[in-house]
Structures are given as structure tokens and as C-alpha cells.
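Summary for the funding panel

The consortium committed to producing paired sequence-structure records for every protein in the target list. Below we show the first two records in order, beginning with the earlier of the two.
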Amino acid sequence: MHRVFGVKENAEYRDREGAYIIPVRGDEVGVVRTPKGYFLVGGGIENGESHTDCLVRECREETGYTVAVGERLCTAETYLFHSSIGYFHPIQTYYRGEFIARETAPTESDHEFMWVRYDDIKGKMFFEMQDWALKNALDK
């Protein structure tokens, strides 16, 4: 399943492929809270790494946890204008996953990992496409 968000303007966009994990524990999901808002755990693919390698690295950086990456759930992309990047086109792939153990402190000090009830986070993610991915993951 794939969905496109936003409106593509007649401009040159900066593409950014990323991978994100959606861990579920009972009626709770794992998300990261930053000063900007709520995000799924994950981020941009670097130096040609695989999606799994990206998720392992991002989870360690943002949460300190090791993870087991599960099935691919869906993909989404959005077109937006970012104040420091300009025209931005994030392309995100979402995976089911499990947080195994916290092995270290997160290296991104402004990221707070938390387990929240889906009903409490629904509609509150920073990116609309991550709200959609979260709903899609929990409907499966």
C-alpha cells in the first residue's frame, strides 16, 4: 500500500528516502517526542545502507534500543516546503518491529522515546503520512 500527501509544486525538490519502525505493545505504540512534535522512530537512509541497517542505526541513536525489524507494512511520500531545506520530498517505508533491549543512552538528546496508547496519539504525529502509516499498521 502506498499513499502520496501534499501538492507537488512546479519546483525542484530534495528527495529523502527513509525507513521507520512501528513497534506495537498491546494497545500502545512506540514513538519519539521532540521539540517539534511526535515522530515514528527512524530516519533517512545514509551512504547506501539497507532499510534494516538504517532502522538499527536510527533506533540506537533515537532510543538506545536494539530492534528486530519485521515485515514491510506500507510506504508514503509527501511534498512540502521546509523552512531550512526548501522544497522537500520525503519518501518513507514503514516496518513492523520489536524493541529488544535498551543497550545505551540515546545520542539524540532532544528525542524522548515513549510508549503511548494509539487513541492518545492518533492525529498528533508531526507528519500526516506517519499518522496514516500508524493507522494502517494497527488496522492490519
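The next record, for a separate protein in the list, is shown here:
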Amino acid sequence: MTAAILVTGGGGVGKTTVSAAIGVAAARRGLETLVLTVDPARRLANALGIAELGADPSKVREEPLLWAAMLDASSSWEAIARRHADPAVAERLVTNDLFEAATGQFPASQSYAAAEEATRFVKQGRWDLVVVDTPPSAGGIEFFTAPANMTDLIGGRLLRWLTGGKLPGRRFFFDRAARPAIRIADAVLGAGLFERVAQFLMDLRTTYDGIAASSAEIDRTLSTAQTLVVTTADPTPMREAIRFFRDLPPNAQHPTSVIFNRSLPVSWVDATAQDDDGELTENLLRWSTESARQQRLRRQFSERYSTEVTTMDWQPTAPTDLDSLESLLTTAGGYSLENLWS
């Protein structure tokens, strides 16, 4: 059975790097591992030894048990449409410019596509472990709420009213009665907007059954996955981490651990100057105060939300190879992340 680890949190906190580090560590401990990332930096692809990440998993050249792939919302939604709609309807959907706008520009649709693709890889059973670098929108929480929200949208009252729900002959009525009126309006207004909107809504409605079933499968997968929240001690990432705990949906497990990335070493709390250099003393005091603040913040967060806390020290340079990625975990303090796959 394939295990899943969901690495979530706001943007810019190092989620992608943490996901890759977990993947490297797991692969080196004998697990066939797939890392799914949303938008990897070039340096991370280089560190993994992969020139170009695509939607299909690529094997990491220097690590025989490690694979990586990039979740592309646009291409994922095209695959989703073709899975859940008849071929002719799917073709109309993916060639409608409204489809591209709806699936490529809205964070919730991107989160849903990532959740469905991640679930598909988990259900394949090809890997022992799938590590998912979740999209950062809404602090990562939309990855968990998007399946239910997407089902509600497509099956919701407004769309049912606009398309007539599942009334027998609705498509016939639309083709024979509504479409001519819409074309008249388009002839006056130009651009064929009404026609494209109506066609898009009608076609989108036909995917409801497939997306509803897929959303239920996503919920089952999320309910058994390990969840890690990555943050830093800065105010904005902290607010997003708090919101994740506050608004955690019922389909997700309570996070296994919170990773405080880029933490200052605890030993800096008691740092003192060895001479009378006033500027050095002032700088040491400043860093000592910040290290103490971060330590206090981690303790309060752990107590408030009854969760394990792991620290990853601030690094002067970003990881540039597999060894430096793995070292992020081996030097982590607090909860042992190896418990995730042991």
C-alpha cells in the first residue's frame, strides 16, 4: 500500500525544498519514492539531477529509488475533463477559452487538480511513498477544501438553475430553443460571449458525477495521509499556519508535525562576545533576542495546538545536490521525520 505525505503551508517557506529532502531521505532508506511538486525552482531541479520536470514522473539519475514530477494545473484539468466527460463534450470543454481561464487562473481549481492528480498517483500503487508539495494558496488549506468546493460548485444550485440540472431533454431544449436566442444576443453584442458561456456551463455540468466520485476518493486518500505544515517564525507564514489548524477540514488528519524552517540555532540564545567590540556585542544581542523569540514561539505553538514541532536551521546557502537536501533532515531538531515512513 502506498503511503502519502502532504507538505503544506504558505508560499515562500521552503515547502518544495522540504518535500524534496523528505523524498531523498526516504529513497535512501529503501523506499520507492515519488515527489510531486507544483513549481520547483531551477536550482531544485538541478539538485535532483533532472533537467526538466514534467507531469510524467522522471527518475532521478543518481538515486535509483527516487522519482519526481511537476503538477501542472492546466494539463491536469484537461486530463480531468477527458476522464469525466464524453469525448465530444470533453473536446468542447478543453477548447473553450473559458475553460482555460477557469482552470488556470483560480487557485481553488489549481488545488483541486493537484489533489486529484496526487490521489491518482497514490492509487496506482507504483511507489511505496508519495510526497506531495501542495499548492500554497490560502496557506495550503485549499488543497484539502477544493474537492468538496468543486463538487458543490458543479452540482450547486446556481449551476443547476442555469443548466436545468438533469431534466430529460435539457440538451435538446438548449439546442433548439435557448441557443438561437443566445445567438441573436451575440449578434448584437458581438464576440460570441453568451454562446461560449452557455456551452461551457452545459458541458461543465456533465462532469458532475465523475468529479463527485473523484472527490470522495480524494477525501479517503487525504484522511489517511500524513500532513506536515511548513512555516517560518515570520508573522505572515505564522498566520497562515495558525489558519490551517483553525480551519482544518474534516477530511484531513491533524498535522503530524509543524516544521519551523530557517530557524536560528538555540545555542545563539546565550551567545556573548569574547572582547569589548561594541558593534559585535550589539549584533550578538540582536541575534540572541531573535533566537529566544523563535524558541518561545515554537513552544507556544506546540502547546496551543498539541502538535510536534521540528526545526530546520537557517542555511547560508540553498541545497544544491542530493546530499545537501538529505542533510536538512539529518540536522533537523525535534520530532523525527523518519517516523513518517517507518
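Regarding this second record: The CA atoms of residues 171 and 202 lie 8 Å apart. The chain has one domain: 3-155+208-340.
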